Amino acid sequence: MSQSLTDADLAVDWAIARAPVAYDMACAVMAARVDAILAGSARELVWLVEHPALYTAGTSARPTELLDPERFPVYRSGRGGRFTYHGPGQRVGYVMLRVGMRYGDVRAYVAALEAWIIDALAALGLSAETMAGRVGVWVAKGAAPAQGHDKIAAIGVRLRRWVSSHGFSINVAPDLGHYAGIVPCGIHDGGVTSLARLGVTDSFAVLDAALRRAFEARFGPTSTTELAVPAAALPAGG
pTM value? Predict the structure, then answer.
C-alpha cells in the first residue's frame, strides 16, 4: 500500500498462509508490518499461519523449562510469556492491531483476544473459558471442577509503540507429544489438549471462518489480502 491511509479506511487486513511459514520469516514479516502500521502506510493485519515443529522462548522463559533442547529448533521471541510449542496441526494467529487506539491497556487487549477465541470455539460446539491468574483459553477435563482444565489456546503478545504483534495458537490436531520437550507456558499442573482430542474434527478452514466471524463481531470489519512469504518445509513425520 503506497499511500497514506484515510480515517475511513478502517478494515483490518485478513491473510491466511497457504503453506507453512518459517518462524524467523514470520517474525520479519510482523516487524515490517508493524513499522508500516506505525508509519500509516498499511492497515492493521490478522495473519493465520502454520509452522514447522519448533519451540519459542518468550521474554519470561526460564532455561529449566526447556526439557529437551535438542528435540526441535528453539527461537527466542520478543513476545511475553515463557516456552511454547508451534508445529503442524496448530493454527497460529499473528495479530497486528493499534492496541493504544482500540484499548489503551494491554490487559484489556489480552482479554479481548481470549474472548475472541472463546467465541470462535463456541461456533464449533466447544465450550472454553479463561482461568483466573492464567493467560490463554482452557477447557474442562470433565464435569467436576476438581478434574481440572487443559489448555486449548496459548496467547503471547508484544507491543511496540502500542501496535501489537505475535498473538495466539490454537491446537487443532497437533502431535501433543511434542509438548513433552518443554514446560508449556511455565505451567506444571495443567495439561494441553486439542480440538481433535476433544472430538472436534473440523478443518482449519472451518476454524478460520469461525475466527473471522468472531473477530468481526468484536473488532470490526476485515478485508481479504495475500502476503507473499516463502514457504517452509514441514519435516517428515510432522
Answer: 0.89
